[in-house]
Amino acid sequence: MAIIYISTYSNIVTLIISLPGNLFIIFVNIQEFCKNRRLLLSNQLIFGFSVISLLHGLVDVCQWDNHGYDKYVTQIFIYFNMCTLSFSTLLSVHFCLKIVHINHWLYIALQKRFHTFFALTLTTLVLGGILVYLSPSLNFRGDLLNITSTDVSKRESSTLLLWIFTAISILHTLLCSVSTLAIVISLFKHMKQIQENTEGSRSPNLEAHIHTVKTVTTLLATNILIFSSMISSYVLFAVRESSWIHICSLLIYIFHIFSSYFLIRGNKKLDTALVEILNQCSCFSSK
User: Fold this and answer.
1) Contact at 8 Å (CB) between 96 and 183?
2) Measured between alpha carbons, how far is 78 from 224 in angstroms, rounded to an integer?
3) How many domains does the chain have?
4) In this structure, what CATH number is given to the domain that contains residue 136?
5) For residues 243 and 68, what is the distance between their CA atoms, to the nearest angstrom?
6) What are 216-261's pLDDT values in tens digits?
7) Which residues of the chain have pLDDT under 50?
8) What transmembrane ranges does the database entry give (predicted)?
9) For the whole model, what pTM was predicted?
10) Chain centroid to CA 204: how far?
11) Quick one: DSSP state of residue 203?
12) In terms of residue numbers, what domain contains 262?
């Protein structure tokens, strides 16, 4: 019980710490959309990641005030993890398609049709959310019909849903890993070319490349931690050690804070807006 209370307070603290970064990303992107009536795909992905991160933190804080722990709560926890995995993977793949040049028909086709891939992923997340939302009501209808059959259907439907989430999460983790590895290899090749041509001086293109590597590496670390926590949640739930799942949730949200920082620093629009705000604050403080 002590672990639950400590984790709940820790979740509240990390949520408060992460609020400025996530709200900053959301506000800047909304302002950009209102100004130009459009958002670049990379900004759409960053905006979605920040919204999911914020909702994830709010759900973590709200759901633990009920000290009971059931499979429905597990499904909510895993669903938001899957959403975070999806958006961070889409960001990594998007950066990879922009930076890494591979002359293969499948890679070129993915570059041209990435918007479609993004729309399909978003549709999958929406359908997954509907399944999670309808899960308890479907089970309740079964209770009115037959208690014994309901117990069986609850286990079967919950297990199937968890397996679907796990399969999608494995795919996203693999895609994120491959994209990050391709970007890192491309960076080393780019650095080698610069050293040969300009005797090691850094170009603006290389600086942007390094920022991108830091961003996708952080996203990959977040993905690995999230996927590990999902597997751990299955095991812990099976052995009735649900209190330790709170620790997994706390670690994930700490990585969300680092991800928000690198997303801001790795995006030109967000970084410029942050520098302007900091300059204005320094001017006010000097007065």
Assistant:
1) yes
2) 14
3) 1
4) 1.20.1070.10
5) 10
6) 777 777 667 666 666 666 565 555 555 555 666 666 667 667 777 7
7) 67-69, 138, 140-150, 152
8) 6-27, 39-56, 76-97, 117-140, 160-188, 216-237, 243-264
9) 0.77
10) 28
11) P
12) 2-286
